[in-house]
Amino acid sequence: MSKASHPSFVTLPSYSDCRNVLEFLVKKFPHISEQVWRNRIKTGKVFWRDGGVINIDEPYQPNSTLGYYREVPQEPTVPFEELIITQNDHFLIAHKPHFLPVMPGGQFVNECLQARLIEKTGIKELQAVHRLDRDTAGLVLFSTNPATRNKYHQLFAERRIAKTYQALASINSSEPIIGKKWHVKNHLKRSQPKFLFENTTQSDIGQYAESIIECIAQSQTKALFSLSPITGRTHQLRLHMQHIGYPILNDRFYPTLQPKQPDDFHNPLQLLAKNLSFVDPVTKREETFKSPTDLEF
């Protein structure tokens, strides 16, 4: 059994029909049995954020925050190293390798970028400001200071941060597309299974998504694209590449969901978060950071 080195937290909603904390946890995390939660509570693996002990019949407390330690029977290992690009009193930028999640989730509890960086830097307050898909490599911004954390969250909320990605796709060799640009504006809606999304023109059932895509190089069989997302929807770039007819190489989800199998470390998704640019909300300086890697074209 692998137990997370650092706790996860969840805030109890202001309204719930749950009578106690145990009921809330069972309802919030239906894939975890009631007996497992009972055992975790009894062994002190669930607690109030201020350190207060929780009992089996602990009453539900609206707007209070619970801490808990995630556990999985066997945690996979990702055989690639992260790299710290820059670090200061307010933020840290790291390069995330393919296959490594940014945050704990699913079968990953300690094998994630945030846990690795906390271990490497000793900064327990380190927290990711945004996410990348586990399959995607590239730059991730972390807050190192709780006092200024919200300022960096606002960069993303107010779209005051510029992100550029690279992607590789298969092409027809007789089709010259270098310099061709696409400005994709559509909506993304939930698909089946529910972790997938799909492109749609129906604004009433999807979230607005916008990307600018340009082909910057091509060979006989592949093309390299530069992608600038205007919005930040889940799987947006993967879906927009599919939308223009060039699905990203080695995509396990799109255009066709592949059977679940162990990670193929030799054939990662060909998508890289290459650049981050923003005006630092603390120092007011313009900052630009680049991933030290490129996709192999």
Automatic annotation (TrEMBL):
Residues 90-243 form the Pseudouridine synthase RsuA/RluA-like domain. Gene3D superfamilies: Pseudouridine synthase. Pfam families: PseudoU_synth_2. GO terms for molecular function: catalytic activity, acting on RNA; pseudouridine synthase activity; RNA binding. InterPro entries: PsdUridine_synth_cat_dom_sf, PsdUridine_synth_RluA-like_CS, PsdUridine_synth_RsuA/RluA, RluA_PseudoU_synthase. One of its GO terms (biological process) is enzyme-directed rRNA pseudouridine synthesis. This is Pseudouridine synthase. It comes from Kangiella spongicola.
